[in-house]
Design goal:
β2 (50-58) and β3 form a beta hairpin. Helix content is 38%, strand content 14%. The protein has one domain: Nucleotidyltransferase, domain 5, CATH 3.30.420. The longest helix has 20 residues, at 187-206. A five-stranded mixed beta sheet has the order 3-2-1-4-5, sandwiched between helices. The chain has helices at residues 80-97, 113-116, 118-127, 150-163, 171-183, 187-206, 213-216, and strands spanning 11-20, 50-58, 61-67, 106-108, 132-133. By secondary structure, it is of the alpha/beta class. This is Transposable element Tc3 transposase.
Length: 219
């Protein structure tokens, strides 16, 4: 990344996150440091109401939110078909109205199976030919690296610190909070967040891929 780009202002970084109605704020996302993938189990309340949110962020602003849900408005897990449907029917129209999109824009996604299936990669490569940062993309994205993803190291934690302040009592209110708070994130803030990626990549390079604790927990 550092060798390929002079700056990261023309990259769309994308991701999904769950927002539970009884959610709590964790500004640092979830990290488990181990020599090997710990494959930890997460205990959650049974049938906890939630929304599954997708968004993309660049130095020019944010696209989203997009809620993965069925026709009755219930959250659904993301699979390849649903991801492709979102790309075609939501992202394509949004790109036409987004000031940060042009023929030189790169697209980043993590290595989730729904993102990197044959069908998904076909759609992504069609939208961003030769400009995909992903497993199986033009530039590989390292697995389990939330400290290098602007949505992980900033957006999701920041949004969760905002959307629960008025204690939403139903999913409709929670979704409206997410829409409002995401729309309120300024371009200037997006620029600062993306600029921070350079120092994170440099630190990762200096540490040979080891933990970025000085950056993560510094104030």
């Amino acid at each position: 990344m550092l060798q390929r780009f002079n700056n990261f202002n023309n990259i769309l970084f994308s991701d999904e996150a769950n927002f539970h109605l009884n959610g709590h704020v964790n500004k640092q996302n979830c990290r488990y440091w181990a020599v090997e993938n710990p494959r930890r189990k997460h205990e959650r309340p049974l049938h906890s109401p939630k929304v599954v949110v997708w968004a993309a962020m660049s130095a020019k602003g944010i696209i989203g939110p997009y809620f993965h849900e069925d026709q009755r408005g219930r959250a659904i897990n993301v699979n390849s078909d649903r991801y492709c449907d979102m790309l075609r029917n939501f992202l394509v129209p949004e790109l036409q109205e987004f000031a940060g999109f042009n023929s030189r824009t790169w697209f980043q996604q993590d290595g989730a199976t729904c993102h990197t299936s044959n069908d998904s990669m076909e759609v992504v490569n069609e939208l961003f030919p030769n400009k995909v940062i992903s497993r199986r993309g033009n530039i590989n994205w390292p697995p389990r690296s939330p400290d290098l993803s602007p949505l992980d190291y900033f957006a999701w934690g920041y949004l969760k610190s905002k959307v629960y302040q008025n204690n939403p009592t139903n999913l409709t209110q929670l979704k409206q909070n997410i829409r409002s708070e995401m729309a309120a994130i300024s371009t200037a803030m997006c620029q600062r967040v993306i600029a921070n990626l350079c120092s994170r990549l440099e630190e990762s390079q200096q540490r040979n891929g080891h933990h970025l604790d000085n950056i993560i927990f510094s104030k």
